[in-house]
Design brief:
With 439 residues, the protein is an alpha+beta fold. The protein is built from eleven helices and 13 strands. The chain has three domains: 109 residues, Alpha-Beta Plaits; 97 residues, Chitinase A, domain 3 (Roll); 171 residues, Trigger factor, C-terminal domain (Trigger factor, domain 2, Orthogonal Bundle), CATH 1.10.3120.10.
Length: 439
């Protein structure tokens, strides 16, 4: 066997494999010997069918089997011989295989780019300090109060105001025809929260119980409800009742009712502060790692394998489709162009691929690997976040073939932490968090 490489681009190669006629003939002989043992042909006893008859009856099947066998046997040998390894399944271009003749085929494939990273340890980078203000704690406390509020009927004579909960009945029409599934009674709209639609909620303002109104809404093409996306819809609305939220009194009893962990209001506020601090610290840490990776990325340029970029784009598009499905909407009817989405996702996907290749090279240069303990800890963290048993989560990932992707993400994070430890970090003045922090 002989193997040779033709460079098309730095990341795309054409591998040519030549198999000698003697090896080809040997494989045909082996195939027909095995076939002769089990072939059933009228007029011949098992094991006694002449090869000429086998060739006439089973020749094409044998040829395909021998061709597949030769490729599966010689392709890995060719990779080892040339020291060129594909990052995705090669595209095989092969000539017709004939008994007694040599066999040549080519494999078009993409490989990891070769690039040199220098001076990526000890980089100077700025990092925010985090300070959670009393205002941020109180804002979160008010949100908890709202969650535990109860609705009570409005006891004054006025129309709908921002913050009210309007109990309405409505029906939607498109070009005079009712929209299927868009009719309801006793439907509650918390006015001003944009949970239904900003235009719709704005037009409810001032309506008193018993009053009716026709409201026209121009829905965006990107609206998740396929029935409404990109359409002008007329709503016939009647306000049945106005309710307001009654907030619980903020005291020690309120804190105790939230759980056994809180003996008083002070304990609740401390927990809120800790949670806000942890959440904001995660954001700051993510930003620090992004800055480090951006600095390293700016020092090196290389071609990106299109198969990896395509994979990232496909993942991004599929995520959008899954989000539509989770909301009960049909992506195919939302008026979105997959081609436009792929174009929009290309830049971020290319950046993601470049970052991953850089992190992979840093991990290789520094012999960074994952221990079984680190993998177990990764599943423990994942399971804690979704309230599941780590063993159950791991079994799911193994069954679905998700283990390699999970381990890749763990190694990426380990490599980023390695870079952070080696960086020269200058802490900025504390970023005062006055509102609820970033998610």
């Amino acid at each position: 066997m002989k193997a040779s490489i033709e460079e098309i681009t730095p990341v795309k190669k054409r591998l040519t494999v030549q198999v000698e006629s003697e090896e080809v003939e040997k494989k045909f002989d082996e195939a027909y010997r095995e076939l002769k043992k089990k072939a059933r042909v009228d007029g011949f006893r098992p094991g006694k069918v002449p090869r000429s008859i086998l060739e006439r009856n089973f020749g094409e099947q044998v040829r395909q089997d021998v061709q597949r066998g030769l490729m599966s046997e010689t392709l890995p040998r060719a990779f080892e011989e040339t020291k060129i390894y594909p990052i995705a399944m090669p595209m095989i271009e092969n000539e017709s295989l004939k008994a007694g003749e040599g066999y040549t085929y080519t494999a078009l494939m993409e490989v990891r780019p070769q690039f040199e990273l220098k001076n990526y340890m000890g980089l100077e980078v700025e990092k925010e300090s985090v300070s959670i203000s009393e205002e941020a704690v109180n804002a979160q406390l008010e949100e908890i109060r709202r969650v535990h509020s109860r609705l009570k009927p409005l006891d004054e004579d006025r129309g709908v105001q921002k913050g009210d909960c309007a109990v309405i009945e409505y029906e939607a029409f498109e070009e005079g025809k009712p929209v299927k599934g868009m009719k309801a009674e006793n439907f509650i709209v918390r006015v001003g929260q944009d949970q239904f639609h900003p235009e719709f909620e704005k037009d409810l303002l001032g309506l008193r119980p018993g009053q009716a109104k026709e409201i026209t809404v121009d829905f965006e093409k990107t609206h998740p409800n396929a029935q409404l996306a990109g359409k002008k819809i007329l709503f016939k609305v009647r306000v049945a009742e106005i309710k307001i939220m009654e907030l619980p009194e903020l005291n020690d009893d309120f804190a105790k009712n939230l759980g056994a962990d809180f003996n008083d209001l002070g304990a609740l506020k401390n927990r809120i502060r800790e949670d806000l601090q942890a959440r904001e610290q995660k954001r700051v840490d993510r930003e620090l790692k992004r800055k480090l990776l951006d600095k390293i990325s700016a020092t090196v340029t290389f071609d990106l394998p299109e198969s990896l970029v395509d994979s990232e784009i496909n993942y991004a598009v599929e995520t959008v489709k899954q989000n539509f499905a989770r909301m009960g909407s049909d992506f195919s009817k939302a008026g979105l162009s997959v081609d436009k989405m792929r174009e929009d996702f290309r830049a971020s996907s290319e950046k993601r691929v470049k970052d991953l290749l850089i992190l992979g090279e840093i991990a290789r240069q520094n012999d960074l690997t994952l221990s079984e303990t680190e993998i177990d800890e990764g599943f423990a963290d994942l399971a804690k976040g979704i309230g599941q048993d780590p063993k159950v989560v791991r079994q799911y990932y193994e069954a679905k073939g998700l283990m390699e992707g999970f381990k890749d993400r763990l190694l990426e994070e380990k490599t980023l932490n390695y870079l952070v430890k080696g960086a020269k970090i200058r802490e900025l003045e504390a970023a005062r968090i006055d509102d609820a922090p970033h998610g």
